[in-house]
Amino acid sequence: MLHTPDPDADALAGLGLSMEDFEGDTAFEVWPESWPAIDLYMRNWTQWRHGPGGASGLDYMVFFSDLDRQGVVGEDAEIIMADIRLIEEGALKAIYSRQ
Questions:
Q1: By three-state DSSP, how is residue 36 classified?
Q2: Spatial contact of 60 and 48, defined as CB atoms under 8 Å apart
Q3: Which of 29, 37, 35, 30 is nearest to 85 (CA)?
Q4: Can you say how many angstroms the Cα of residue 87 is from the centroid of all Cα atoms in its chain?
Q5: Are 30 and 38 in contact (CB under 8 A)?
Q6: What average pLDDT score do residues 59-65 get?
Q7: Is the separation of the CB atoms in 84 and 76 below 8 Å?
Q8: Within a 10 A sphere around the Cβ of 59, how many other Cβ atoms?
Q9: CB-based contacts of 72: which residues, under 8 Å, 6+ apart?
Q10: Chain segment 17-58, per-residue pLDDT in tens
Q11: Which end of the chain, N or C, is less packed with Cβ atoms under 10 Å?
Q12: Global pTM?
């Protein structure tokens, strides 16, 4: 997983699960309209702004530049960036929930 550690056996046992419940394929479904943002994020997921306390947010200029190179502009770019902000929010929650 990108931003969260894999659960250990004790954590899973607390939920009534075991490591065997997660063996094999870890695929999940992504809605087609979400793919542009997922694709953009996966190309640039290392581009975080960091301060003394750790990651503070994504470097949007990298994402804007990538969208420009792909020829994605206007409303399409705005929709993708709105989805990127949701991904960013979830990633930050995952990152800081471990501390």
A1: helix
A2: no
A3: 37
A4: 5
A5: yes
A6: 97
A7: no
A8: 14
A9: 36, 80
A10: 887 776 766 667 889 999 999 999 999 999 999 999 899 999
A11: C
A12: 0.74
Long-range contacts for 62-68 (Cβ within 8 Å, ≥24 apart)?
66/40, 67/40
Encoded tokens for 80? 């993708």
Confidence of residue 95 (pLDDT cuts 50, 70, 90): confident
Beta-bridge partner residues of 48? 58
**Taking a C-beta distance cutoff of 8 angstroms, is the pair 35, 43 a contact?**
no
The structure tokens listed for 34 are: 């979400």
User: What letter would DSSP give residue 24?
Assistant: S
What element of type H or E holds 65? Answer: helix 60-70
How far from 71 is each of 11, 34, 43, 44, 45, CA to CA, in Å? 45, 18, 16, 17, 20
